[in-house]
Amino acid sequence: MEKYIRKLGRNSIVMSIILLVFGLFMFIKPISTINILMIIFGSLLVIDGLVHLVSYFSIKSDYRFFSSELAQAIIYIVLGFILLCNYDKLGYLLPIILGIRIVVDSIFKLQIALNIRDVYDSHWGFLLAMSIINALLGSVILFKPFESLAVLTMVCGAILMIVELMSIFEDVSIISRVGKFEKFEKEIDKKINNVKK
Question: What is the pTM of this model?
């Protein structure tokens, strides 16, 4: 049991160190990180498309009539190649899409706030204020996509580093106490056996 827990702890620490380095890279080089993630995502789409293509031609011809795998394969492969060929341009579309979604959602919430303003204890003012703040934040992302994307990636990198540092600390703490846990467990088992006798 002790060896197993120590092995799990060591594996977890190695993974945390890898993620910590990735978080640091996200913080220092946010745009390069986004480009790498877009390339990875595009590659995964192409691989997924190829898997669907192989799957489509490997099933019996009777079942192909009901299968949409060929269409899925073509769509995934085309999207994957578009992403791989234009990863640096498409990376900037993400914050624009996110900004549009936030602004549109805020407009709907603003409408709801105005609709319920006559309802007693509806807190419509709070909802109105939140929708205006969300609309302003969405507009910042929409009109400053490059800066927003870089800042967002840096924040994610910082959070990832903090989480992984805490994880490493927890793993080291557990590994250093494994022997004590086993000793404590044996003492409890011994007391239970003595009581049974």
Answer: 0.57
